[in-house]
Each structure stands twice: as structure tokens, then as C-alpha cells.
Amino acid sequence: MAKYQIEKRRHKRLSKSFGDAISGFWLAFRQERNIHIQLSAAVIVIIFSLIIHISRTDMMIVIILIGGVISLELMNTALERVVDLVTRERHPMAKAAKDTAAAAVWWFSVIAALIYAYIVAGTLLLK
Ligand SMILES: Nc1ncnc2c1ncn2[C@@H]1O[C@H](COP(=O)(O)OP(=O)(O)OP(=O)(O)O)[C@@H](O)[C@H]1O
């Protein structure tokens, strides 16, 4: 059995894990324009949702959707970095990996936009 399976895995401190996650977020924030766009859209969506008084449950759904889009974008960024680490040359597999990860963000964003449109329409029509 491999050594790493037998030895008890040493866990790093929780504060170090948080620190690493926050530094990963800032790194992606500095390097990825898409994250700027998504965070700006999130602020606009939250402000607009407050203005039209969507229900608390709908607001929770909106926050989950925003979190999903940002999380997927961060995973997309991570995958881009790994692909670039593996090869800087043009390769169809590199393209497939990056484009598929981008498609994951795209799919979730489209679904999120449709759900938000439904929430907004439902809220405004009920008034
Ligand atoms: N090594 C490669 N081989 C082949 N095609 C690649 C390679 N690297 C990138 N591409 C193509 O170029 C596109 C953009 O790749 P890049 O790494 O610049 O990401 P990006 O512009 O930051 O993308 P995103 O807007 O999704 O964050 C990829 O989706 C892929 O189609």
C-alpha cells in the first residue's frame, strides 16, 4: 500500500487553509477579467433585488446562484492554470479542457440568468 495511505495525513491549521483560499481568490481576481464582470453583475443584481423587494427565499436562491457562478469561474481559472502548467504549446486536449471548463461556467450562468428573470418577473407581476 502506498505510503501516503498508511500514514496519518497531517492537516494544516484551519486559519492557514482560509488564508490560502483568500489568497487564491485575490490571485484570480487580479488576473481574470470575468471575475470582475461577475462580481459587478452580482452587486447590481443584489441592489436591484432589494429595490424590487424580492422575497427572502428568492434572495437566498439568488445568493446561491451568485456563489455558484463565482465558484465555477474560480474552478475554471484553476483548470486554466493547470493546463498552462502542463503545456504552453497549442494542443487539442488543452483546448478541450479549457473550453469544457468555460462551458461549465457558461451553462450555470445561463441557468442562473433564466432563474433570476423568473424571480424578477414573478415578483413584479405579484405587485
Ligand atoms: N494550450 C492551448 N492549446 C490549444 N488551445 C488553447 C490553449 N490555451 C488556450 N487555448 C484556447 O484559447 C482559449 C482562451 O484560453 P486562455 O488560457 O487565454 O483563457 P482565457 O482567455 O483566460 O479564458 P476565459 O475567458 O474562459 O477565462 C481557450 O478556451 C482555448 O480555446
From TrEMBL:
Q: Where in the cell is it found?
A: Cell membrane
What GO terms describe the biological role, i.e. biological process, of this protein?
Answer: phospholipid biosynthetic process
**Per the record, what is one GO cellular component?**
plasma membrane
The cofactors named for this UniProt entry are:
Mg(2+)
* Positions of transmembrane segments: 35-54, 60-79, 100-121
Q: Which residues bind ATP?
A: 13, 32, 80, 89-91, 98-99
Q: What is its main location?
A: membrane
Annotated positions binding a divalent metal cation: 32, 80
Q: How does it sit in the membrane?
A: Multi-pass membrane protein
Could you tell me one molecular function GO term of this UniProt entry?
metal ion binding
- Classify the source by domain of life: Bacteria
Give UniProt keywords alphabetically.
Answer: ATP-binding, Cell membrane, Kinase, Lipid biosynthesis, Lipid metabolism, Magnesium, Membrane, Metal-binding, Nucleotide-binding, Phospholipid biosynthesis, Phospholipid metabolism, Transferase, Transmembrane, Transmembrane helix
InterPro entries, sorted: DAGK, DAGK_sf, UDPK
Cofactor note text: Mn(2+), Zn(2+), Cd(2+) and Co(2+) support activity to lesser extents.
Residues binding substrate, per UniProt: 13, 73
The entry's active site is 73
For this chain, the family text in UniProt reads: Belongs to the bacterial diacylglycerol kinase family.
Q: What is this protein called?
A: Diacylglycerol kinase family protein
Question: Which species?
Answer: Sporolactobacillus shoreae
Q: What is the lineage of its organism?
A: Bacteria, Bacillati, Bacillota, Bacilli, Bacillales
